[in-house]
Structure formats: C-alpha cells, structure tokens
C-alpha cells in the first residue's frame, strides 16, 4: 500500500514530537490539520501513560483532546520533579571501594553503560524513523483524498498503518527465546554444549546457535568465559570478528546466536591441502593478523589461537571466533594441566633432538593427529600453538597471540608445526627446549623451504617476548608483507571460495550423524558425562546479569537515522 521511493532522501527531521493525535479524516474537517514541522506540547494532565503509542493514535471526534495523544509523539515537560537529597547516605559502606574495584563490578558498570546507551540510541532512532513513516503515510493519504478517495477508505488505510506500528512495538518488547529458533543441523560440539545451524522463525535469519549448560558452567565457575565471549561479540563492529545476533538464557541453558560462517575452519582447509603455496599462505596469515588485531583493539588477548579458531566466510575471507568458550576455552584447568605436563617431561628420557627431513616430520605429525582422534580436542590440549610463557603461567601480554600466528604460518607452509614430535610428550619437550628445536626447514635437495623474509618473520613471532614484534604496525612493516595492502584485503579474491548450495549448506563442518566425525569428540563426550554425573539435581537459580542481547540492523533493527545520518535513513527499515 505504501510505496517506498529509494531515490528520496530524508535530510530534515523537524521534530520528535508530532501531535498526530489531532489528525482527522472526517469529511467536514480540513484534511490533515497538523503542522508536522512545529511540534505541539499539550498539557500532561490526563495522559494515559500506559496506553500503547500506536493505539492512542486512532482518530475520533475527540482528536484534539490531549488524553488521546501518544506519549511517543510528544515532548514531555519534566520541570517540577524534585529529588529529595536529604535521603542520600551520609557516607559510603565500609567495603564499598573493595567491591567497586572487583572485576565483576567493573564489568557490570560497563555493561550498564552500554545497555543504556544502546537502549536510548535505539529508542530515539525508532521515534525519528516513526515520525518519517507517519509523514510519508500522511502525504500518501492526502494524495488519495485529493484524488477523490472516500473518508471511510482513507480511515481504513490509516488503521492498517496503525496496526503495523502496534505490531512493531509488540516485537520490540519481546525477548528472544529458544522456541524462536528452528534447529536445522548440529555443526559443533564443545565441553559445555552444542552448536547448531538454526533459523530464527520470524526474521528467517540463519545463525550458529551455541547452547551451553548453565548448571555445568556455574558449577565449574566458568561463567566468566561466557560473559567475556558475549561482551566481545556485542562490542565488536569489525568484519574480521564473528558477530553476535542474539544472547539469552532460560533456567537451564545459555544461548548465543552468532552469524553463521559457512566455509568451515582453517584446520579443514589445511587437512584438505596438507600445506599451502607461499602466496596463499601469505594471504591467509595477513587476514589472520587483521582479525587478531581487531580483537586486540578491543582490549582482549586470545591466548589460545589455533587453525580451528579461524573460520572462512562465504566469500573466502577469514573471521576469528571462539574467544574463550566451549571447545576453545582456555580455562585455568587446562592451563594448569598443561603446565603440570610440561614439568613432567623434564623427568622423562628423550633422545637428543636430531633434525629430520620435512617429509619425515610431516608424516610423523599427521600420523599422530590421525592415530589420536582426541589430539586437538583433548581437555589437556596440545601445546603446538601456545606461547611458552602462557604454559609456564608467567606474566605475558597480547604478543603471545603473535607466537601462535607464527606457528600457524609455519604449519601452513610445510604441513607440520615447529615443535611437533612423535608423541604429545615429545612435543612438550620440544616446546620446553624451543630455542634448540626451532630450525629452518630444508627440502630434500638441501634448499631452505622458507625464504629469508619468511624465516625472518617466523623468528620475530616465535621468540622471547623482548625480541618479539610489539605491534600490528611492526608486523605490517616486515618485508614478508611488502606486497600486501592490509586496507584492501577483503576486496581481493581469496585462493579458496566455498562452493555452497544454499544459505543452510553445512557441508564444510563435521557430520554428527557420521561415526568417523563423531570419533573426534570422544574425549569431549567422556568429560561431559563425567562432569554431569558429579552434579546434583538442584535447580540453578542464578541469572547472569547483562547477558541478554538483540542486534538491531535491517528488518529487525535500526533505520540508520542516528547511526548513519538522515540522508542514509530508511524509515521503513523496521516496518516491512
């Protein structure tokens, strides 16, 4: 009924307070007797503050009565409201400063600030876009009247518009629930829950829905990792990081609905190719640095980067995920177990390290991964990519992620990690003596497998903290990246572009109906069963504060009036 003209720019938004309650379509009155550019401010006496804004806009004989004006459509005068300051506390409680300085309190403060900023920005955006919609609808109805439309017909069309506005308000009040999502297939399994490819029923959005056992998380005191993941996902606007669409909870579970990245992970790419050509490896490691830098700019360090953490989107570009949750969690339990294992290998008898050929090391590495299906997903974990100072529980900074990227680059080029051994214990021992073990690989003909500039980069990433590259700017200035323009990477055609049948194609992920794929998660399932057996049947009464989230974009979100400027606004963005 109401057409949208894409070439019309809405450069002027005159008012947030159009008194559209005074409009009437009765034949005996002048049409649309309302000055939309000059807001009216009726008295607040008699206003029904509980009335639905859209319902209070219905036209009747008392249209001039302020009691029928929508609260959404006026500017209220709050003068005269006084605060009794005599009831303020005389002094702060004794433990106020201690509680205020805790990490939990600081997080709640940040969450509250973000919540109210987001809430009011969204509210004003909605109000402004509603004014614009009303103006366009009134213009359309004025044209209909001029063309001989009947008063009853015009009023009927106006009522249709009001009903749609009322529907928008109802949706804005609803919080997402599990039943709002249709499960399509399972695409992941973690220590605390599962990941499903899902579709939101009303908006038809495709997402990766992570469902976590709330009781298990709380019993193991792992909720901080969930909150960290949630906070990172809601804070980021970077195209290099996976985005959060919805976060919600019920008595038994926590839910994170994230954008679905359909191309699988970088590990799958390495398994299929064994190793990459030098230009292809340079492309992917460049994008990985961009993704990790986006995380660092938010003030977070990943600490546990590995190929599984990098996903490939539908266009073939990299996105970073798993910021300390489920299968990729860096819990203190895992750190402690790896630290103990690192100490234990000191007492084991290992033969003196001898450099092997590239083919031998590649075969040994893949044999270990193939023979031990739990190698990468074990609770204890593999030290292939983790910086030594993290394992030794020493102080560290964000550059530990650079060590991990150096290991991933090494593996991408030759098909094995720099400290891989014939067993997990030998890998730990190699890591403990990393300065003696890290060698520049040679081909069978004696030539180095890495160019000089490649080896220079690797040794500036896998190194002591004092010698490691200190910033993303330092990384970009390395000779290895001389041909890379980091600002235009996402405009380059990637070496691999996923072949997808449709938006729900999950072919690049494990098939959870396949026994071979399920075998990879044996250790995860055993640990989950063990932990579940230790739990009692008491209900979880605690709710995570500041967890619920709903993105605002496109059909279910912002019109862009506030965020993009009125010239880019689409007032009907939330309408259809």
TrEMBL record:
Domain Protein kinase: residue ranges: 181-481
Highest taxon of source: Eukaryota
SUPFAM superfamilies: Protein kinase-like (PK-like) (SSF56112)
EC number: 2.7.11.1
Keyword Acyltransferase (UniProt): no
GO BP: intracellular signal transduction; nuclear division
GO molecular function: ATP binding; protein serine/threonine kinase activity
Residue ranges annotated for the AGC-kinase C-terminal domain, each copy included: 482-559
GO cellular component: cellular bud neck; spindle pole body
InterPro entries per UniProt: AGC-kinase_C (IPR000961), Kinase-like_dom_sf (IPR011009), Pkinase_C (IPR017892), Prot_kinase_dom (IPR000719), Protein_kinase_ATP_BS (IPR017441), Ser/Thr_kinase_AS (IPR008271), Ser_Thr_kinase_AGC (IPR050236)
Keywords: ATP-binding, Kinase, Nucleotide-binding, Phosphoprotein, Serine/threonine-protein kinase, Transferase
UniProt xrefs under Pfam families: Pkinase, Pkinase_C
Binding-site residues for ATP, renumbered to this chain: 210
Keyword Coiled coil annotated: no
Record field: catalytic activity: L-seryl-[protein] + ATP = O-phospho-L-seryl-[protein] + ADP + H(+); L-threonyl-[protein] + ATP = O-phospho-L-threonyl-[protein] + ADP + H(+)
Protein name: non-specific serine/threonine protein kinase
